[in-house]
Amino acid sequence: MRPGVRLGVDVGRARVGVARCDRDGLLATPVETLPRGDGTIDALRAFAAEFEAIEFVVGLPLSLNGTDTASTADARDFAAALAAEGGIPVRLVDERLSTVTAQRALRESGRRARAARPVIDQVAAVIILQNALDSERAAASPPGAVVDPYES
Question: What's phi and psi for 60, nearest 5 deg?
Fold first, then answer.
């Protein structure tokens, strides 16, 4: 397991959920939900500097059978824009069912869906990052694929 903080990112059309892990890569925790817009990538870069992150882990929404969806291209474009800023690597990892799992967890804890929308994005980012950490620990290699900002 590589040491260092990673930032998990759940890309949505309206909001972007952010999570982080500890330096040992054991536990993912929520950070914030950002509105999606012109300043989102700058805000993520600021979090990376604040936490001295070694990489971003961006969720890649695929259909249940593993094919691309409408959101897949959006997540790839967002990850490429984040990678184009340079500095630290950006990895895309499969995030199938992360939002559904987050919604279920919040519902089971008594939260109403409408009031929990911003929190759902953070919880989804936690799930994406925790799954990536667990995968890296089990496989002894980094999860997903590094984004090449120059590949279209």
Answer: -110, 105
Tokens of 107: 């519902």
Among 142, 120, 146, smallest CA distance to 133 is for 142
Name the maximum alpha-carbon separation found in the chain. 45
Structural domains of the chain, ranges and CATH numbers in brackets: 5-141 (3.30.420.140)
Token look-up 């990895």 returns 91
Please tell me the pTM assigned to this model.
0.88
Length of the chain in terms of residues written: 152
Residue-wise pLDDT for 63-85, tens only, equals 778 788 888 999 999 999 999 97
The residue among 59, 63, 95 whose CA lies nearest residue 78 is 59
